[in-house]
Amino acid sequence: MTLRQLYPPIEPYRAGYVHVDAGRSIYYGEAGNPDGRPALFLHAGPDLVCPLTTAWDLANRWPEAQPRIVDAAGHSAYDPPITHELITATDHFLEAEAR
Rounded CA gap, 2 and 99, in Å? Predict the structure, then answer.
């Protein structure tokens, strides 16, 4: 079985762009069941790659998601504070799914 068969393309039910700064935007697309599982995104407070305003813009355009700002973290999933939040979020979603 191919990846395309396992994960066929789907059209997002909502999509748009989040303004980053002059000349740069981030595309987002929400697909799947709009009443489905909750979403969460993490943003490192002092992230030098993506400014904190990017997280606020995304949160405003995606009100169903739970933003978490992680202080004293960098731009990597391997940064200990980010890793901790990823594990905490995964545990939270697994517990909610089990209910």
Answer: 33
